[in-house]
Design brief:
By secondary structure, the chain is of the alpha/beta class. Helix content is 43%, strand content 12%. The protein folds into two domains: 5-17 and 210-385, 3-Layer(aba) Sandwich (Rossmann fold), CATH 3.40.50.10490; 28-196, Glucose-6-phosphate isomerase like protein, domain 1 (Rossmann fold), CATH 3.40.50.10490.
Length: 394
Amino acid sequence: MTVDEALLDDPEALAAADHSGVLRTLATAGAQVREAAALSGEAGVTRLAEEHRPRAVVVASLGGSAVVSDILLALAGRACPVPVLVRRGGPLPAWVGPLDLVVAVSLSGRAAGPLALAAEAARRGARVVTVADEGSPLAQVGAGRGNVQVPLARGSRVEEGLRARSSRLSLWSLLVPVLSAADALGLVRTPPEVLAEVADRLDAEAEQCRPASEAFLNPAKTLALDLAGSVPVILADGDVAGAAAARAASMLARTARVPAVRGALPDDAGDVVATFGGPFATRPDDVFADPFLDDAGAAARLRLLLLRDAPTEPDAAPEVGPTAPAGAVVDAVAQTAADAGVRVSEVVPEPGPPLVRLAQLVARTDFAATYLALAGGIDPAASPHVADLRDRLG
């Protein structure tokens, strides 16, 4: 993949290349959080706390909205008082009934999977929470008696343009209502003060990664240049970073058209390091090769992208062996990569609540994927091949 590095340091050229305004849309993430939180309150999400806790929660989301359920699962963790299941489409599990809650998410409100699951849940008497465009079929299900329908934040509604066509760029408008509902039920801890901190962290990241910031000062532009011409292997060090890794892989594929594989510790460490000896690993004789100057036509090489969660005890002595914490395992993987000649990039968020740390990881990789697309002459807004697939599937 040939990239135009000069483009990244030319705000006017970037704006011209980004004719759909993807970078501007990413910069509104903090505003999306604030507006979605307000809309959730107005829709009555907090009244869920006044009712009985559900026996189980089923989350229906797919495509660009699938990361919503990934993030909820990561934040709920093993301590969640009720099971949380994810369904991309039907059928609804036979046991779902009046004691359960089904959460369905769709930007257009017309995605077949979430719509069918929500409608069937309502028919069985289960409580339903929907996040969808007002007036859509899914919103109509959520407007039923005893249910909750949260409309989209203003910038994500169908008549507002780009974000209406892309769930990728409306992540926070879709996610915040789901987390507000989960907080009301005591499944996760994402109260208003945490959401406010998330919005502030997203604003700060947008400022740091703004188009006018020069590449050597802009961490997202730097990461984009690191990933250019590579085969990214994304490794996360835990559940929070794992959800961010899923988002990063999706954004690289859908935004920059770059395939990426991802994994999370501890299970995937072996799979990742095994690739260091494969056909895409750097050969010993080209460890010092410059991928931008020496051979523009050379085959793509692995780039290990480590998404590391903020350390909670930076002064603690590291453990070793099979019970070592994630940080020690990541260090070992990084050293193995260095020994094999595989280049490594890292993204580490500043300390804060889990959702705040995740937000920074997501924002950094979102901006990086977009800069990578623009520098490579690719429209980050839409893929014609995805559009063709949708047309073929009807």
